[in-house]
Design goal:
Layout (H helix, E strand, L loop, with lengths): L4 E4 L1 H4 L2 H12 L4 E3 L2 H14 L5 H14 L9 H4 L10 H10 L3 E3 L8 H4 L5 E3 L1 H11 L1 H14 L7 H8 L4 H10 L1
Parallel strand pairs: 1-2, 1-3, 3-4
Length: 185
């Protein structure tokens, strides 16, 4: 069965634990992730603005690791499309352009109001909250989602965290996901 092509908005890539979970889910072939260098630039810039203790070089390293792990994820040559789109916040047009260019079916974002259904439906794209997205993945393949989550926990080294600690970190933003994962572990 073909997997969904999904654009990850910058707000999803910003929090490391959520980014890591989504990337581990993609590594299990539960969906095909897409982003652009501009989306990378947004999450890196926002993270540096809010966390001056972080080093730009480390975040760029994370970006390169993501691009190397998912070489098909980086979408280019979408700017012509961007100029034809009109979302409520024009700064989000590039995200929709990436989705259209990559033939995505979903944009995963916390900012659902910025991607109204009426503006996305002509392109057969839906804006989906990450909690709903991951819950749907759990319902379709519990085994692969659990494997992805356990891989995420195993790969955490600095600092290492337990399954419960990781769940506690993401619980506020992904409550339904955490509820289902707690039942699986």
């Amino acid at each position: 069965m073909p997997v969904d092509i999904v654009v990850l908005d910058a707000c999803i890539l910003y929090p490391a634990p959520i980014r890591d979970l989504l990337l581990h889910l993609a590594a299990e072939d539960l969906y095909s992730p897409k982003w652009s260098n501009r989306i990378h630039g947004e999450w890196v810039q926002n993270l540096l603005a809010n966390r001056p203790d972080l080093k730009k070089s480390n975040l760029h390293r994370t970006q390169k690791l993501m691009d190397n792990a998912f070489p098909e994820a980086v979408v280019k040559n979408y700017s012509v499309l961007e100029q034809t789109l009109s979302l409520p916040d024009p700064d989000d047009n590039h995200v929709l352009a990436v989705a259209v260019k990559s033939l995505a079916t979903k944009i995963i974002t916390f900012n659902l109001k910025d991607f109204p259904a009426g503006k996305l439906s002509p392109y057969h794209i839906k804006a989906v909250h990450p909690d709903s997205f991951i819950v749907n993945l759990i319902q379709s393949d519990e085994e692969k989602v659990l494997k992805a989550f356990l891989n995420q926990v195993t790969n955490l080294k600095n600092p290492p965290m337990t399954k419960t600690e990781v769940l506690n970190v993401i619980k506020d933003r992904l409550p339904s996901t955490v509820n289902l994962l707690e039942k699986l572990i």
